[in-house]
Structures
1.
Amino acid sequence: MKRAAKAAGVGLPSALIADLRAATSPDRVRVDPLERAIYGRDASLCVGDEPAVVVFPVTPEEVAEVVRACNRHGRPFVARGSGTGLAGNAVPLGEPVVIVTTKLNKVLSVDAGERVAWVQPGVLNLDLSRHTAALGLHYAPDPSSQQVCTIGGNVATNSGGPHCLAYGVTNAHVLALKVVLPDGSLAQLGGLDPEPAGYDLRGVFVGSEGMLGIATEIAVRLMPDPPEVATLLLDFMDVSAGASTVSDVIAGGLVPAAMEMMDANAVKVVEAFVHAGYPTDAAAVLLVECEGLPAGVKASVDLITETGQRNGARTVRLAADDVERDLLWKGRKAAFGAVARLAPDYYLHDTVVPRTRLVEVLEKVYEISARHNLTVVNVFHAGDGNLHPLLAFDSRTEGVMDSVHAAGEEIVLASLAAGGVLSGEHGIGIEKRDLMGHLFSQADLAAQDRLRACFDPDGLANPSKVLPSPSGCGDLRPQVKVPAGAWV
Amino acid sequence: MLPREFSRDLLGLAEEVGTEDPVTPLGGSTQWEVGGLPGPGAREVRVASGILEYEPAEMTVRCLAGTTLAELADGVGEAGQMVPLDLPQPQKATVGGVLAVGRSGIRRLHYGPIRDHVLGVTFVDAAGELIRSGGPTVKNVSGFDLCRLMVGSLGTLGVIGEVILRCMPLPSLSAWYCGSADPFELRSRLFSPSSILWDGSTTWLCLEGHPADVEAQARLSGLRPCEGPPPLPQGGRASLRPSDLKTLTGEFVAEVGVGVVHLSEAVPRLTDERTLALQKQIKQSFDPAGRLNPGRTAWLP
């Protein structure tokens, strides 16, 4: 009944809509059922509510006006970039206004001398590096979704990526933020100078999943392109030999630019899709990249080769040129798409464990998936212990969603038991909100909520995410609902 | 798997901080005047020292906040690693102290600010409770980042008890060069030097890495080998945009490419009004009675 009424446009908050139209323009305030349904989802399987309204501001001033209108009407709001989030971070709860930032997509300035760019939040990650390529500069964080994800979204979830092993995740690359605070006021957090006065509000804002406000301009650090790059592919007959190589390389005093691992299932689907020459009979392949000055890179390549061989690497392939390098990386970055060959749906997980516990947790992941009759594909950031078990399934199979859900939770808990944390780069969102109590005490969570409330006392910015409600259980509504079909 | 036992040291610290009367945490007092002096009558609280956990293959180290930088360097140095917290007086300066002050060392150009080396912080809050944030892994986005809030908070939001830090490999060679080359031009010509310092006439350059690379970069720089960095003026510290360093005059040593300027006198720090209000709100919320390090203010020089 409720849905039918909504579909007919009955019960929409007309005064709010009128204010939002005045704040932006009538054609950028959308209420039709299809758009509201689309912006009710992200790339995760989390289901929330449909937004009351979807707004597309084109300037920071419009964002501020929209937020002020939400304040006047006591209406929560959710900022959203491309919607590639995998933890339900931008899935609306409580019928909020969804503020889509993708039309704020300008690179505002690039200062090659200071190696800083100011960008709007809707700029796509890869577009920024393309924009600065001619200057010999790039933006280091490179999530696998970098062709479509926005810098604003990266800021919200403190995104990582393969090359964050050596250079750090998003937080290390954001210098300053101009933000619209949840009450609609404007502030600058951080600065282009190295030691802005006071508490590190910039650092606190990055990774806060849209709950402390909306970034409308972001100053990011650009890095010089390395003079030398070497990309190696090592293959192993068992996964633990690959993981030991990772630990040994790091214990050997080397932190490569990236160190990525794929297991047998991943190699098979990727090779069939990309034809990168990955050995399809391998139990695991390791993709390693070293960057820097020539002698250091050469020494690193030697160390990795030797360490791999000592651990039983069957072959060590060094990319001969950029074409081969791109091909090897294409396999890694296309892995999740390639999984469609196995099954129509997938659930991608994200946990981090101490790197020395990788093998043990991987074995658990295989055991859990087998017990639930699910196919698991592992493509992950081995260098920093960041696992991405991907459960492939067909949602038309009776009862499969229950298995997917149960297996997922077991995997997360197994990672925590090994001394890991809940998320490496996807964030908590809705997906892991109710698991926070496994990692943090009530006092820890209360301190986090105290910080949140300083920015947003009224709880209007992306409410009900990250922090479990104080009672810890007994929510009125199940927050994680698994839908009948996955949209991936 | 539910938490989580705190060590006797941490429980003791929580008890010492207690729930009432003003306290001021004491490290090595090497940057004692930053943010103002603690008010009279504040009870001094010291944090125990010691490395608690160090696994070279993890490249992370967990230690008590009272550990000195020298102890830390020795502890991880044996395995060929370091935590690049290169602040003055490492025999005295403590890990908790330098993180609470939040100022980075002179190799920030390459290694980044010290906040980026902190993975986990356990602190005692104004109610005497132990709060954990972050964790032992190098990547972690589990909840709001209280670690970064603590770095540079000058002990005004909590007393840091224990930290988990990220280690890095010790470079196989680390060498200083100096001469009269234009430091700004050097910055764009060289690849990722560890430090470029400039006093208006002399340029100092720190190169680290594979010896052959260091040698090649040194040749490219045109500078001659010399003894370590120059003495840094201790009276004040300015934070400027890197491009604004070009116009500096007088007595200073500037970190080129970074923007930190070491001066002989203190300079005011600026922040916009809304941001300042937010800072004050955070202080008020975390320490309503104002008992944590009274007299010190995180947004003052």
2.
Amino acid sequence: MHHMLHIKNGIVVDPKNGINAEKMDIFVKEGKIVEESEVDVKEAKVIDASNKLVVAGGFDMHAHIAGSKINTGREMRPEEMRTVRLIAGKFRASIGRVLLTSPAIGYEYAKMGYTTAFEAAQPPVGALHTHEELDAIPMIDKAALPVFGNWHFVLKYVAEKEWEKLRAFLAWALERTKGFGVKVVNPGGVEAWMYGGNCKSLDDEVPGFNVTPREIITGLIQETENLGLCHSVHLHCNNLGTPGNYQTTIETMKLASKFSNDKRQVLHVTHVQFNAYAGSSWRDVASGAAEIAKYVNSVDNITIDMGQPIFGHATAMTGDAPFQFTLHKLTGSRWSNKDSEIEGGAGIVPIAYLPKNPVHALQWAIGLELGLLIDSDRVVLSTDYPNGGPFTEYPYVMAMLMSKKMREKELERVSPYVQKATGLAAIDNEKTLYEIIQMTRSLPARVMGMDNKGHLGIGADADIAIYNLDPLSIDTANDFEAVYKAFKTSAYTIKGGEIIAKDGELVKEIWGRTFWVDATSNASIEAIDSDLNEMFEKYYSLQRQNYGVEEAWLRKPERLVMG
Amino acid sequence: MPETKEEELTNVICTFCGSVCDDVLFDVEKYKGKKFCKLGSAKFSKKERIKAPMIDGKEVSYEEAIEKAVEILLNAKRPLLYGWASTVNEAIRLGVILTEKVGGVYDQCASVCHAPGTLALIEEGVPGGSLGEVKNRADVVIFWGSNPMEAHPRHPVRYSVRAKGLLIKDRKDRKVVVVDVRKTKSANMADLFIQIKPGYDYPIISALRALVKGEEDAVPDEVGGVSKQQLKELAELMKNAKYGALLYGLGVTQSRGRDRNVENAIKLIQLLNRHTRWIIWPMRGHYNVVGAGDVPAWEVGYTYAIDFSRGYPRFSPGEFAANEVLQRGDCDAALIIASDPVAHFPKASVAHLKKIPVIQIDPFPNMTTLISKVVIPSAMAGLEAEGTAYRMDGIPFRVKKIIDTEYWSDEKILELMLEKVNEKLGLR
């Protein structure tokens, strides 16, 4: 077994370290990228990467890959499971169309050159389930973001302006759920849903709590920053999926203006495509992407991810339970809902994005507009898997962003509604390969505060993807088919220094780490001890002592202690 | 002997029914539980155990029994691996992978129980909620074809009837309705009992849908033994609820209409959510029957009746459910874990089981032990072994090990079995 690798003559693109298509060698030892002098070149396994693109492994910072939501999706949609990707043998059987089984998720990411993926919404009381599924995903590193925006502790502490307690609660909850950061979904709106309502504007009052979404978001940003977490507040905005909602989105972004952080954004707004609609109804709905892009580009404390729809099948699954009910009424499709203790809720509805459907085409165009109009160090490539569609079509999005010609071709097959309702056709911008690598590697790693991910500098994790694409000769604007094909399956995927996939075939099954964030030393948990006892006693249906996940129960946990 | 003080007892999580009560206590010295219901208490008390692993009734070591079991599974063309609802997720996961490796059929207790609810989920989805939400918010609770007083004795007090929470401060704040074909014990605790004719769940639910929709004229004077007046009152009660919960049981899934009954009920709940908030949820039986469906869902895409004979999973309840496979004579070996099909399956299924080599894994002897070629006793999860279990509402718990035992856990047994299978298949 080779513990050392010598990746020879590759053309490296490594935006974090300012390397743009330079021919260089990369050396790997004990799972890390090291100096040449660290490696006994005679002992090292040599990978010939001549004329190939060498980049850090892809980093999916927002996907729904584990837990009760995707699993209910699987149970509700056996029709999703008829695509057979791999017969059982040396590797597990791997199946699924857009919804994949856990082994299939790991395998497909690996084949595509992705080595890290984060579950974007973990119901806190279901944390153990989420971790069981993360533990069943081979090949990649992972983590989960617990959801806070409707949790009664949060609503109560924000209403009472008990900031120290809120801070302590965040630290307590991250430790108990073995979570990574503060996810917020439709703050206040899901609590309102328990009464059949929603919070569509920042100033709607949350029933039963003297508090508004504006106050919840501001309070959570403030205490996430005070706690010194590596990731910022990660927000699914209010009013999702409604014509005219782009204004709510910009108004929400402005809440971050009084905060700053030297290392990263203070607010990550997720799957913005679903929150970027202008107009007043589905009849006159249009794109609000340009306005959002203008705002995001004008500030340096906000990042977003796209939430790009891919034409074809998808399954909408979010913690935004009232939105999911609206979607069910709108499409008449199946609907699962889960109200969850005093923590929030979730919903699941199947959907298919059809190119000839004006609204779907509009959504598709808005996602691309966001990707094209926003600076590449502020927008991460995502489909909000499986909400916008499969992550396996990231190469389609990459190719589209790099080629106006490809977009023109695609525009011919979609509803002409996008021509009048969006600015997509008029956008000349073509992202460079460097920018695409930024949007899929270095930026998501920075957004999540993972210093050792998303780049190829000395000391970085040896998570590396090699593609059959020569950056020095490829014309990404014209050869979009070659670009798509190259990114679909890596020539090599290397995870922690081991070759796990080669030319679209799995090589070795490995198990990645699960990161979780421990910030308990930055807060006084005692401050909330009696509140926890009281709330558990009164409002939970389980004991406080039986709540949460112990590190020993996880396959390969890695605790990140916040200084 | 004086009573041991509560604080000196150990908190355990009950591994009997789907309520998975996590507030119960155990006195290790006296080997006695506290706060348990009758059913839980019976499980958490000294019981007859299978003494040691056996092949053909002869005591052997764990390793020998496992070796024999592996031989049986690998020699079979299509083994059936059935049970799973009363063990932990860690064991279930290994069992699913084992079934995949040996090209067998995975099925679990739901297929003779709540699986029609799964079929309804496939048709319509399920608008549900956790038991904590029922406790906090539900001002109307309907038990339909379910009998918690006898099947889930602490459910009413912990979650659904006398439980107090955020909006429900008193028993009087909540209306409890029982709909059943006979006056059950649960009917006695209800504010309203509606007795229906057996097999009439579907038309009664349809009538309620019509009434909630405002199509009163479509409803005849009497449906399934219930007067139109009474149905109107029930429909009004449902519409006027702030947060309602319909908790259904086997009376709905195993009577005429089966999955269609549940599907119809889900459509009623969809409709009610256009007026107010309602949820619907099954009263699942065994403590981890939810895990027995959830684990295979993430590992192989389906919850039950899964065949691997082609090297990839296929789901077909009418074909690959245990009873279908057995009655067709379509399996040539079986591994039965944490279940007793000989006592509960139809004669025709048992007749085939008797013809083929059966491997049993269970802490306790039962009817299936008597016909098993290989018997592997295991530690009891929740007392002698730890692991993850999902309460009926999907909330995960880590059940505890508080007593040391010589018995291997289901997880350890299956781990070695899988290791041996991989070895023999040359997959290591």
